[in-house]
Amino acid sequence: MEQQLSLILLHSPRSVNNEEPLLARVPPTKHHYNRTFFKFFLYFVLIGLSYYFIISSFFVPPPLSLISLDSPSGNVSSKNCDLFVGDWVPDPTGPRYTNLSCNHIQDFQNCLFNGRPDENYLFWRWKPRNCDLPKFEPSQFLDSLRNKWLAFIGDSIARNHVQSLICILSQVEKVEEIYHDKEHRSKIWRFPAYNFTLSVVWAPFLIKSDTSSSSGIQLYLDQLDHKWTDQYSNFDYVVISGGKWFLKSTIFHENDKITGCHYCQGRYTDLGYTYSYRKAINQFHNFIQNSPHKPLVLFRTTTPDHFENGEWNTGGYCNRTMPFKQGEGKMKTEDELMHDIELEMLRKHGSGSNIRLLDTTAMSFLRPDGHPGPYRNPHPFVGVKDKKKVQRDCLHWCLPGPIDSWNDVMIETILNRNGKAEI
Ligand SMILES: *[C@@H]1O[C@H](CO)[C@@H](O)[C@H](O)[C@H]1NC(C)=O
Ligand SMILES: *[C@@H]1O[C@H](CO)[C@@H](O)[C@H](O)[C@H]1NC(C)=O
Ligand SMILES: *[C@@H]1O[C@H](CO)[C@@H](O)[C@H](O)[C@H]1NC(C)=O
Ligand SMILES: *[C@@H]1O[C@H](CO)[C@@H](O)[C@H](O)[C@H]1NC(C)=O
């Protein structure tokens, strides 16, 4: 099963010790460098941290003039509605699929199956301030994307997102997996009746990286990752994202020289992750602009995590059962900085470009209740004496869960563009 794979890569479900990097968040301090930890860290980085991270956004994206899908209330979205500024409102209808009706949920995100006791987090819907955003209609979406190819490019949060989409769509038509790579990180599926193709491409940095070196992750800041660029001309729609992998210990290469690093214990000049992330987005951006192929490219902004009172490896947890109200909670500095870089780089484009922001950061930030927490593994507390030691995941999203709503804003953005211009 594909799901097992990512999990194993990330962390073996059995050993829930704190050394397993659930999150690659690197503490700001450069002291106390510990070789053993570093090796351990690299090891896991190589194997699988790939899974985490992702999307969201804040602030005001370029105004999208929206033509709403048929809203159940008959309230047609207003033009210039900002889809990404809004509130979570109660939604008694609940999720569009269950752990039984969808078998594409990764074990680590199958929260109800794993014994999460509260269910209130399933009964909310994203409501943009100035318009209604109906939950998208799967058959209508498939019909609109007949003969098209939609690709998700990124890390484990991109996978989380594509699984949410598949769960919703597969309630209408059974999906066929037609390709997976050796590690089951990149996959292609088809919805045969619609000839609609869906991919996820594993490229956590978007730029070229080498995670096999014993001296740390080597990042090539002036080269893109061929894994996605080689396939780019196939795609009609692209949802691309970057983010948390840049927080790992990384060594920067530019023009065939080492130019610096992030968190490398003084071996090179520490330029920080903001340096590498900015370069990566710049590269990505230049590629999209210069490519003669013009799919609609949605850049999904960084996904905030909700570890409280610690990080993934220091006892952080996320046990809230309600969304934040406006003004409640505070986004972490890394998430804010990454989001700022995304906006800064992508705003330069302006209109006429085929890049759109899928600015899910703010809406996601409001959902501290949407993560697996301890329920990344089945019945995590059974037979455990020290509950605090149970590893938490406060980064990925439960399925079903708040990430299902990313699809509503994504599809609104895709179909809106679809109505205005040919791809
Ligand atoms: C599915 O979720 C329900 C809770 O809604 C839970 O009781 C049940 O055990 C789960 N079953 C499977 C097969 O995941
Ligand atoms: C449509 O929805 C908006 C936002 O919820 C609301 O302000 C407006 O009054 C609604 N319009 C109609 C015609 O229902
Ligand atoms: C199916 O879609 C692909 C593009 O994704 C297209 O190349 C192909 O011609 C389509 N097949 C049919 C039978 O329409
Ligand atoms: C969350 O966990 C903390 C620490 O264990 C506890 O103090 C708090 O009451 C918990 N909150 C909820 C909503 O369970």
Describe this protein's structure.
Keywords: Membrane, Signal-anchor, Transmembrane, Transmembrane helix. GO terms for molecular function: O-acetyltransferase activity. Belongs to the PC-esterase family. TBL subfamily. With about 425 residues, the chain is an alpha/beta fold. It has nine helices and 13 strands. It has two domains: about 55 residues, no CATH class; about 350 residues, SGNH hydrolase (Rossmann fold, 3-Layer(aba) Sandwich), CATH 3.40.50.1110. A seven-stranded mixed beta sheet has the order 4-5-6-3-9-12-13, covered by helices on one side. The chain has a four-stranded mixed beta sheet with strand order 7-8-10-11. The radius of gyration is 20 Å and the shape is globular. The relative contact order is 0.19. The N terminus and C terminus are likely disordered. The site of one 2-acetamido-2-deoxy-beta-D-glucopyranose has 4 residues, from loops.
Q: What keyword list fits this structure?
A:
globular, alpha/beta, O-acetyltransferase activity, 13 strands, 2 domains, disordered C terminus, 4-stranded mixed sheet, transmembrane, 423 residues
Strand residue content: 15-25%
SSE pattern, N- to C-terminal: HHEEHEHEEEEEHEEEHEHEHH
CATH class membership of the largest domain: Alpha Beta
CA-to-CA gap between the ends? Answer: 35 Å
Oligomerization status of the protein chains: single chain
Biggest sheet details: 7 strands, mixed
Q: What is the 3D shape?
A: globular
Low-confidence stretches are 1-33, 45-78, 417-423
CATH-assigned fold name of the largest domain: Rossmann fold
**Secondary-structure class:** alpha/beta
- CATH architecture annotation of the largest domain: 3-Layer(aba) Sandwich
Mean pLDDT: 83
Strand elements, count? 13
Bound molecules: 2-acetamido-2-deoxy-beta-D-glucopyranose
What's the tally of helices?
Answer: 9
Output the CATH homologous superfamily of the largest domain. SGNH hydrolase
Instruction: Please state how the strands of the largest beta sheet are arranged side by side.
Output: 4-5-6-3-9-12-13
